[in-house]
Amino acid sequence: MGSLIPGxxxxxxxxxxxxxxxxxxxxxxxxxxxxxxxxVPFTGEIKQVVIDSAGILYVLSEGVRVVxxxxxxxxxxxxxxxxIKGVEANALNLSNDKFLIVSSSLDGRELxxxxxxxxxxxxxxxxxxxxxxxxxxTYEYVMRxxxxxxxxxxxxxxxxxxxxxxxxSKRYTEHVKLIGMNASGETKFNNTMVSDTExxxxxxxxxxxxKDNVYLSISKGFMRPYSSRAMIxxxxxxxxxxxxxxxxxxxxTKYKGxxxxxxxxxxxxxxxxxxxxxxxxxxxxxxxxxxITKTISVEAGHIGNQIPASISTDGHIVFAQHxxxxxxxxxxxxxxxxxxxxxRFYPYSVPGLTLDSSQNIVFSGYDSLxxxxxxxxxxxKTKKINWSLPINTDARSPIIIGKDGTIYVWGxxxxxxxxxxx
Length: 422
What we know:
Elements: E1 35-41, E2 45-51, E3 57-62, E4 67-72, E5 78-84, E6 88-95, E7 99-106, E8 120-128, E9 133-142, E10 144-150, E11 156-165, E12 172-181, E13 187-197, E14 202-204, E15 208-210, E16 213-225, E17 231-244, E18 249-255, E19 264-266, E20 269-273, E21 282-287, E22 292-297, E23 310-311, E24 317-319, E25 322-324, E26 330-333, E27 337-338, E28 341-342, E29 353-355, E30 360-367, E31 372-379, E32 385-390, E33 400-401, E34 407-410, E35 413-418
Antiparallel strand pairs: 1-35, 2-3, 3-4, 4-5, 6-7, 7-8, 8-9, 10-11, 11-12, 12-13, 14-16, 15-16, 16-17, 17-18, 19-20, 20-21, 21-22, 23-24, 24-25, 25-26, 27-28, 29-30, 30-31, 31-32, 33-34, 34-35
């Protein structure tokens, strides 16, 4: 199965959200309100789900110090399940419809030197879709483990950070690293991208591979008083980096804010938001040469820009609660409404918006005020809600759409919503 967008790391109908550049689906979600088809429980929490061209689902889950990789049919039948190395699950990617790239980690309880500052070990492993381990890499002395990205050629990039402390000092330095490895697991580069003291907090995005380069955002900030007893980090200085697969820095673009996800890519443009932690409410459109070609300002108070932008096949932009023309003109806005109640669209309540092949905005969300989760579908052409469904589960995940229109969401169970077989 090829990539929907040439040069983007994986096919849009096979992995979401890690390597789905524009956050599109090749399949159409139901136009009528779907029903619950099945729910499969997992021990602990599901971290990520991908689906291949045959409709087989692959689930990365985390229990009590146990990481599992599980394969299921579209009917919910489990094909295989196995424990993999690690005590914390991180990310799962599908590569070329044949391989599973997994990142997990060990922590201090598995280490002989449990008192060391960086007590985690990052693990990147490659499996066949039948569950056979092909290779496994470990990277020690890690404090924070970021996401991974996989290119069309199987190249893998991983972002992480670690701390150092000068002898006799109470100050720490955080180092952000980007690691690249080829399809055989050979590490091609292991570069420190930035270092700062504890008074200058650092934030880094998930990486994204487009064609022959890796893209990553790194933000630096400062600590300011939040109350008489607390400090809060604000991120005002961000750089959008372009790095070759040999680890050479090719360009750096400055903007303000942080992004807690991979950059969004479509048609030779990246869409990078300045999340308002000391940044701004802007969406920056950056070309592959690293030039900001357009800046879209979002109305103050709309905090949905902590959700990545989604780009339709004709170039329309869905960002925060707004739909923009390809030129960046605001066209209309929307609000989740379930059974006549307007749900709040607040940070981390909506994990992402998927645009299906019929140009519907499909997403799941959660509002504690109304006590639960929901799935909603909005028609981009008519601007009307197709349907909204309270699902009364713990599901707080992105949306995956199968070939037959089945919608998958997850929490400690994997749920399938669609048309039940008669």
